[in-house]
Amino acid sequence: MNIRFGIIAVAAGASLAAVACQKQEPSSEPGMGTETTKQQTPQEIAQPTSQASGDPASKAAEQATKPSPAAPIAKDVTDRSGASSPAPFEGEIKLDYHPAKGKGTRTFTYLIKGDQLRYDQAPAPQTTPSRAVVDLTQDRVVALGMDKKPYVEMSAKPSANAETSIQVARTGKIDTVAGHACEEWMLTDTKRQETIDACVASGIPYFMLLEHAAKGKVEPDWATALTRNRAFPLRLIHRNRKGEEIASAQVSRIEPRKLEDKVFAVPLDDRKIEPSPGMKLPGVS
Known about the structure:
Elements: H1 2-24, H2 42-46, H3 56-65, E1 90-99, E2 106-113, E3 116-121, E4 130-135, E5 140-145, E6 151-155, E7 166-177, E8 180-189, E9 194-202, H4 221-228, E10 231-239, E11 245-256, E12 272-273
Parallel strand pairs: 6-12
Antiparallel strand pairs: 1-2, 1-11, 2-3, 3-4, 4-5, 5-6, 7-8, 8-9, 9-10, 10-11
């Protein structure tokens, strides 16, 4: 009796031990035990498990993986703020013009403020002092004498074909005249077969009246090309078809300074007259 009970007890103990082993050692095959081992995907293997959100190292790593915000788009140079655009020139420019034959040196003093400009021609042999006031925003030019003569107001806007005979070649070569940088341009008048070698300062407006200006043509064609391009010639040489010099000009002084608006005003006591074809403009010589 005792022997049989001992055998039964031993067998029962062995069964309990087997059951305990099954609970402690889960099967590696699904469905074969009470608990299975999860298989990792390739994505999980490649990405380490993140640490707790409160861990500083974890936060730093998380921030590093975030895409950085897009950089702000730079403002266009035409933006009204003008942040990326150079300030318009304001000040005085003295230019000496030398015809190869005839009237001798002519000195022009330009006063420029944005798209407004005035030039005064100083007295010289065979010339009379004169003044031109130009507003390129309104395409308006006023020619007047310096001695209270009548003045003429005209449109500064050239006709549609005013510079069709002018070809402009920008060489990219930079020089310095009167302490200011300029680029070498070659202007070719295909109709007259003339050339103008000019070193121009971009962004500074220019204007030069014809002695006998008419509606739709108030400047020489080559000057119209420079006016349209807001390019002031700091130096130029004008040659005919044979390569002979017609005239030359060079700036001797550039002085940036503040200008009052009144310097571009027409005297109230001057008398306005209407231009006529072939008329010589007041004071222009």
